[in-house]
Automatic annotation (TrEMBL):
It comes from the Bacteria. Pfam families: MMR_HSR1 (PF01926), YqeH-like_C (PF21516). InterPro entries: G_CP_dom, GTP-bd, GTP-bd_ribosome_bgen_YqeH, Mito_lipid_metab_GTPase, NOA1/YqeH-like_C, P-loop_NTPase. It comes from Paenibacillus wynnii. GO terms for molecular function: GTP binding. Gene3D superfamilies: P-loop containing nucleotide triphosphate hydrolases (3.40.50.300). CDD domains: YqeH. This is GTPase. Residues 66-229 form the CP-type G domain.
Length: 375
């Protein structure tokens, strides 16, 4: 952008008050250069709300988001926290409770359509409830939904109607969890946008929230998506994102492994069966990500020889942009019902009553943990 154009660009969006910028459409305040001559000048997110009745997704880091949430506990608010069931622990805002105070929280668990159709949804809801309890999160209601298939959204809207009263509605969540789809549905159901909005009708608040007016004088507060660096969706290049994030129902891949065998998930991670009796492991990952089996003693050499080619994505040109792999070892007790979970990549379920020693190799910083089995 030329210095002359920079001088002409207003400092703040007339709609939400965020500082305007033309460099990155993924972060708050973005405005295309072709739009800065408009009067009044508003950011792309406000423009889409005003003209198309829909919100676009922007993101901030975790510290900025927590600063944004400070003070919400003193307000009369209903909070909708949307999480990704495929990446539950990676997308859950575990510190949310200390910010919301006594305000009610609806937990919208998105992407339930990815689970095999035989999944018992009541057991799934109980599983989510138990995970929330472990994270110290109180929820007024847990709703399993699918933004892609518009499943569960009617119940979600009913719950909002029941709990909203005289409250503003805050929608919070990590990036790539379906928050924009939910915001757009709320706008269409609760906000009277038949008449053209003026920017003064959705004044900005702190940082980069956008207040979307409801017909009763209250607001939907659209907060930016949080960037959590421990998720694969934040690590990989855009061209590899489709391979990591499943678009279709998961097809569990079952492997009977002997001690000393390994599985590669493309070039993104490795699972080692270090010790234990022969047993089966079920992999719940995106169907577009190829799994390669090899002997543990050959695994390091295979990775060095075929990384970015046979073991891809990422391709050779993007492989070195990821952090170095880190090894995580777990001892699984006999008879336990356990998943090895990797944030954004999926999980591996142990199917046997036998115990095992497992190692996971993933880029440093990716969240890896054990949990009671989801399915």
């Amino acid at each position: 952008m030329s210095q002359e154009h920079e001088a002409q660009l207003p400092v703040k969006c007339s709609g939400c008050g965020i500082k305007l910028q033309t460099e990155n459409k993924e972060i708050p305040g973005f405005i295309p250069e072709v739009a800065y001559d408009r009067d009044p000048v508003i950011c792309q997110r406000c423009f889409r709300i005003k003209n198309y009745n829909e919100a676009s997704s922007v993101s901030v880091n975790q510290d900025e988001f927590l600063r944004l949430l400070s003070g919400i506990g003193e307000k009369n608010a209903l909070v909708i926290h949307i999480v990704d069931l495929f990446d539950f622990e990676g997308s859950l805002i575990s510190g949310l409770q200390r910010f919301v105070g006594n305000n009610p929280v609806i937990l919208a668990v998105n992407k339930v359509d990815l689970l095999p159709k035989v999944t018992n949804l009541n057991k799934m809801r109980n599983w989510v409830q138990q995970r929330c309890k472990e994270h110290g999160m109180k929820t007024e209601e847990i709703i399993l939904c699918s933004a892609k298939r518009n499943q569960g959204f009617d119940r979600l809207l009913e719950s909002v109607t029941e709990l909203r009263g005289q409250r503003d509605v805050y929608v919070v969540g990590a990036t790539n969890v379906g928050k924009s789809t939910l915001i757009n549905r709320l706008i269409s159901d609760y906000s009277d946008l038949d008449q053209e909005l003026t920017t003064s009708q959705y004044p900005g608040t702190t940082l980069d929230t956008v207040k979307i007016p409801l017909d009763d004088g209250h607001y939907i507060i659209d907060t930016p998506g949080i960037v959590y660096p421990w998720r694969y969706s934040e690590l990989v290049e855009r061209q590899d994102l489709d391979a990591v994030m499943p678009a279709q129902t998961l097809k569990p891949a079952v492997y009977q492994l002997n001690e000393g065998q390994s599985l590669f998930f493309g070039g993104l991670g490795r699972f080692d069966f270090v010790q234990g009796e022969r047993q089966s492991f079920t992999c719940f990952i995106s169907g577009t990500l190829k799994i390669h089996r090899t002997k543990l003693e050959r695994a390091d050499a295979l990775y060095q020889e075929h990384r970015g080619e046979l073991l891809s994505p990422p391709g050779t040109d993007r492989m070195d942009k990821l952090p170095q792999w880190q090894r995580h070892e777990f001892r699984i007790n006999r008879g336990s019902n356990t998943d090895i979970y990797v944030s954004g990549l999926g999980w591996i379920k142990l199917n046997s009553t036998e115990g095992a020693v497992i190692a996971i190799h993933v880029p440093k910083g990716v969240k890896v943990l054990t949990r009671p089995s989801l399915i």
